[in-house]
Amino acid sequence: MTDAATGYRIVSPELTVKAMRDSGYKNTAYALAELIDNSIDAEAELVEVFAWEERPKPGESHVRPRIETIAVLDNGKGMDGETLRRALKFGDGRGGDSKRIGRFGMGLPNSSMSQCRKVEVWSWTNGAGNALYTYLSLEEINNGLDDVPEPVHQRVPDQWQQLSEGLGETGTLVVWSDLDRVLWYGAAATLRNTEELIGRVYRHYLNPVAEGAGHRSVEIRLVPVRDGAVIEGERQVRPNDPLYLTAKTCTPAPFADQPMFMPFNMGDEDNPGVVRVPITYKGQTHDVIVRASIARPEARQSDVSGHPWPANANKNVEPGQQQWGKHAKRNIGVSLVRQGRELDLDTSWAIGYDPVERWWGVEVDFPRELDAAFGVTNNKQTATNFSALAHFDWAAEADPGETFKALKDRLAERGDQRVPLIDLAFYLQERLLPRMRRQLRQQRVGARTNNKRHEDEAANKANDAINRRREEGRLGQTDKLDEQAEPEQKRQEQVEALTNRHHIDKEIAEALVDEDLAKDVRVRWISSFQDSPAFFSIDLMAGMLQVIFNSNHPLHRELVTVLEDVPDDADADALRERLSRAADTFKLLLFSWARMEDEIPGERQRAKITEARQDWGRYARDFIDGEDDDE
Length: 631
What we know:
This protein has 631 residues and is α+β, with helices and mostly antiparallel strands. The protein has 23 helices and 18 strands.
């Protein structure tokens, strides 16, 4: 090629590589995942990740050992010279093998150059002593290197052979040096911050049961090295399951060896936690598998029979602030899985301020044939079309009078990329997630929380007011029923009300009723989904006045949730904002009552409402201050 010709390149090699370096890997762990993808595609049974740090040399400004090199070694089937050379070429995919995780042919060079200035690769098919070697160097590319250097025979360096526990007759070693974009400083810290993500991304490969589901099993070893010797912090990656259905994971005790969540019933009695959603794209229909789970009661309550919390757990602290609750907080979102490998944990589908969100899990598993429909990016970190639908509001996008189907047909005519996924998004947004959230809120009925003192204070004051009125001969329906009912009859009635009408787990309902009966508690507050415009209702039972706040009413979201579901780490500004929201909501509640009185026709009817308001005020004074002026 002449100098004149090279002067008119559209993009120079050095600028191309610079753009690739800035291609958006979230951190070193995501970049390492690209190399692990290649190892799994090469049928490796063991992948070893080494982080090598060196002590500071005399005269250097830093005083702590600093990571100098990262290496990934596998015992996969290795590469011949042609394949090895092509593997370091940007954008040289290997075609359409539907079983491969990789597709775009950019993983090895792209991820490597995002973290370092030099990547070296050894690969062998007949012993590590007969390996082929080549490399990419950013410095040489900037100096005009156009081609990947032709591989040469070079044995795998001794230090890597000695560190490996599973060096095979075939395999590949990738070494990153001249690291300039690694976020973490030391070897152990780098691997510690890598483990949780790698465990989540490859959970289906790390779980031996996954092999029965069509995935090979792989072991991933993380090894910190200092001055050539393994140091403290070596670990074998354990699965990190955001659905918390796997028995042995990295979840903290007591859920490291048992599932913390349970499958959420989506209608299939034989497989309650799974539903298949057909997606049609370019004339072909593929099944997208949706898996869902919610927390077991014992994850959120310390007093579930037979499931005690660990002795070192503070039972006065919210479950979200226990170690397993903090772990669940790091796994909030919809897990998007492609070819058994997680692309992204998409938090767009979660309500950011709501602590309940950590207690559900959803996985959307799709085949690589739907990559374009989902909008999979070339670094396999997200799916743009799917994420864009997290807040899809079809009613807002529809024309006046346009049906949901008509909207989809119109968008399809315009070539809108979202069309194939709209039904899936609608199912997640309108059906699945609301049902899961409702059931999780019921799970906490009667649970001890950080606000228990205030809840007890309200219940105690209400109890005192009721007992005072009973002693004065002012009997209510619950008092009259109580005089006629046997103890077991009262218990059964209350349990059935909680389980049948308000869909609370029977075990929780029984524990709640037994405690209240033992303490002679005569009032109970719960939240329950109700198909009613009223924001609360009441159950009048023998000896029990039960108030049910309608969780389907906006008042629940803007008042109860704002005041009760407060994150423990909320700062002063967040607390002030919550109090302001609650105050505004309370004012709007009173304004709505005032307007209701204003619109009531007829003086006689309006007088009855005014009298009811005054009566309620007198009862409120008695319950709040213990004073009743109704003599």
